[in-house]
Amino acid sequence: MIVIKTSIFPASREEMFNKLQKLKLLQYIAWPYATFTPVGEKISEWRAGTSSVYMFKLFGIIPFGTHKINVVSFDKDDGIYTHEGNEYVPTWNHRIVLEEISPDQCLYSDIVEIEAGWKTIFVYLWARCFYAHRQRKWIRLLSKGTKS
Hints:
The protein has a 7-stranded antiparallel sheet, covered by helices on one side. A hairpin with a 3-residue loop joins strand 4 (62-75) and strand 5 (79-85). It is built from 3 helices and 7 strands. The mean pLDDT is 94. The protein has one domain (2-143): START domain (Alpha-D-Glucose-1,6-Bisphosphate, Chain A, domain 4). It is of the alpha+beta class.
């Protein structure tokens, strides 16, 4: 199943791309729907070709496996694409597309392919809520003019 969520963000594509490179900011945006704590080597900035592993918890309290993220592409022009998954959700392929609208606005899209066997529909419903939450939180953060 595929989740698609798109919003207009009050930031340039370049500003948004720079923010997406920061793990700490992504952890903030995911909370409270999800928390992910690095296992082993901690990556502070995302780049194509990197792989990382996290202890994933739903709502910060329900353990949901060891989540692995392989960054396939991380490019301002071509977008961000990761192959992700864990023992409960083997396929979680996430693409982020940024399109410039104006010097201070961009169109931001999360496109996520999910496959989890019989659990897929439940994971899909959670993911729809999760990405709506993330985008609302991004908009609030960007509207405050926070520079991170």
